[in-house]
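Repro:
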Amino acid sequence: MELRHLRYLVAVAEYGTFREASRHLHVAQSAISEQIADLEHELGGPLLDRGQRATRLTAQGRIFLEEARKTLAQADHAVDLTRRSMLGQEGSLAIGFFLWGAGNFFASIIRDYRKLHPNVKLTLFEMHASVQMPALIDERIDVAIIVALADAFPDGNIVLVGPIVKIDPAILPRRPNVHFTGIQPYASLPSYLSGIDVAIMPFARNAATANISPTKTLEYFAAGRPVVSTRIADVERAYADTVLLADDPADFVAACRAALTPDADRIARGRAFAHGQRWDAIAERMWADLAAVE
């Protein structure tokens, strides 16, 4: 028994003759008659009284007709539901978001989506960043460290803020808990920093990093976040008692674990460093030096 058997019987019952059913279904009258005969044979009895002028349902035919209509309606519903799901109009959608990075537009997007797709079950869950690095994603990054962090903190998130330049994106780790945000407005960085546990500087030690002095170090200090870095010369020379330093991926993971329990003294020293290196303080010292020369 197939759905076409049900459709043919329903059509004959509704239109009263095989001829009218054939005309509406665009199927040969003989084909409809043969299919209904097969159905009756399968059921073991007649569903129709075939008269010269009209065809009527038998008692058993009326029972079968009621159930056939329900079955066809359910089949049509299944097709419609599946098609709507393929178009994104039915089903469920789970969205993970960072509260501190969603922006003011996020709530309005969700509200508009729910209006457009009322039949989609929308589930929102807040994600939390364990570690974060706002910077250029370039040849200076130690990819092995990012992989180690992703493996060590499967329930956390590694957020890398900044454009990907001078490095093949294919070599960057693509893990569910590693997120590349792309370029972001500088004014948005404080909101990113406010939502993290550990600020990281996973620099590879190579010619590109031999003489760098990362300005983000002071930005991290100002945000009051624990900082973990590879052993970059300038960072070690200036901030060895404030930044947690690591030599390899395993050390870096261990340092991040330690940083998850914030050291108030380290954070206070970092903020003092940042306060002393703000632009107006630097300008004041420069003016003082110039005045001393005169």
